[in-house]
Amino acid sequence: MSAVYLDYNATAPVRPQAQAAVAEALAAGGNPSSVHAAGRAARARMEAARAKVAALIAAPASTVIFTSGGTEANALAVESAVASGSRRLIVSAVEHDAVLESARASGAEVEVLPVDAEGVADLTWLADRLGRRNGDDGRPFVALMLANNETGVIQPVAEAAQIVRAAGGWLHVDAVQAAGKIAVDSRALGADTLAISAHKIGGPQGVGALTFGPRATLVRRLHGGGQERSRRAGTENVPGIAGFGAAAEAALEDLPVASAQAAWRDAAEAALLDAGATVLGRGAPRLPNTLCVAMPDFPAELQVMNLDLAGVMASAGSACSSGKVKPSHVVAAMGREDLAGCAIRISGGWATSAEDWNRFVEAWIRAHDRHAARRRAPAA
Ligand code: PLP
User: For 219-349, where are the E strands, in sequence order?
Assistant: First the structure.
């Protein structure tokens, strides 16, 4: 039986269209900064991709900067805000480490925006906090992701934007997980900066983008040539960017297919709830593809290993990093420290079928029953 891949939030399989675009760009070669025919063709390829990436997030193409991924896009936003005078950064408790650690490394003070039991940011806290700013804080900066990588919980970003804007602040939105799974309109959301990543939507790894609005001034993090309108030096990753563009185009077309995942996810969720599991973020709006489920007394690592043995790939904790399983800060921020070591994430995507979700449920129930029986058995 073929393996079932249900870890799209870690990385999505590369779409055939993206594979073809990468291969074509590699074969064609050319440096977009060269003025000869090969250079002009590479530039045209890159600008076509920029338009497609911009369309996915409803941003003007001229405001899209290509980066080496979601991590760099987030870092660029945080460091730009600090360079523009933000001395106290407010970041939600459930942000990805790319945002949390960039904020901590920035030299500015970091304050954590709490979330409720469903993982939704507390906007009353935010309004109150921004209302009590003092002169030392500089320009307010708030990072609130659009959708969480572990739970799929969607944040009230447009409402947060109104609060941040009223305070004259800068709202950064990490839309790395939301893009390609739900419609993302960076301007309607009121984002001053918004980050996305190719490999989460079926493009290649190592390429991402940041879009910025008129109230955000970006710094130059990499110095050298005048690429990306002098905002990011270095010869562009044209094959990666071409793949990103093709994936963005396909992901936009596929949005209705992406939303169909919700019914399959919900059926799987119902089966696990029946078995006594807890679903995190179930009471909040969520991405259609993501299920974060915790089973007390069944460690996440054991769940994932058992699923893997049954040919089903899922992940535990913030599995983006290094294959190590660490207790989830997201689950802990939701007040469920008790579940932080036993929550796993199942996430489907463009090539996932209803059958894949069924295979996951069967494998999980079998593993759980075996584990429960072992725990009940008297020690020899
Ligand atoms: N932001 C979120 C919400 C993510 O889930 C990830 C990756 O898992 C990133 C940022 C980092 O993106 P990249 O892997 O492209 O650096």
Answer: 278-279, 290-294, 312-313, 315-316, 343-347
Q: Which residues of 234-267 are buried (b: 16+ CB within 10 A; e: fewer)?
A: eebbbbbbbbbbbbbbbbbebeeebeebbebbee
Give me 74's structure tokens.
């987030």
What is the pTM assigned to this prediction?
0.96
Cβ-contact 77, 193 below 8 angstroms: yes
Q: How far apart are CA 361 and CA 328, in angstroms?
A: 22
CA separation (Å) from 362 to 210, 357, 368?
40, 9, 10
Q: What is the mean pLDDT of residues 331-347?
A: 93
Q: Report which ligand 1 atom has the smallest distance to the Cα of 198.
A: 15
Interval between CA 221 and ligand 1 midpoint (Å) = 19
Q: Tell me, what amino acid is at 13?
A: P
Domains and CATH numbers, the chain: 4-12+256-376 (3.90.1150.10), 16-253 (3.40.640.10)
Max Cα–Cα distance, the chain, nearest Å: 77
Query: What are the pLDDT digits (tens) for 278-334?
Result: 999 999 999 999 999 999 889 999 999 999 999 999 999 643 344 556 778 999 999
Half-sphere exposure of 145 (CA within 13 A, CB side): 34
Q: Pocket of ligand 1, candidates 144, 155, 177, 197: which has the most ligand atoms within 8 Å of its Cβ, to mutate?
A: 197
* Alpha-carbon distance values, 249 to 49, 60, 114, 183, 300 (Å): 9, 15, 35, 13, 35
145's CB contacts (< 8 A; 6+ apart) are 92, 94, 95, 96, 99, 155, 173, 174, 175, 176, 177, 178
Cα(98)–Cα(153) distance, rounded to whole angstroms?
Answer: 18
CA of 176 to the centre of ligand 1 (A): 6
Q: For the range 225-231, what are the long-range contacts, defined as Cβ-Cβ under 8 Å and sequence gap of 24 or more?
A: 225/33, 226/33, 227/32, 227/33, 228/65, 228/66, 229/65, 231/65
Amino acid identity of residue 157, one-letter, is V
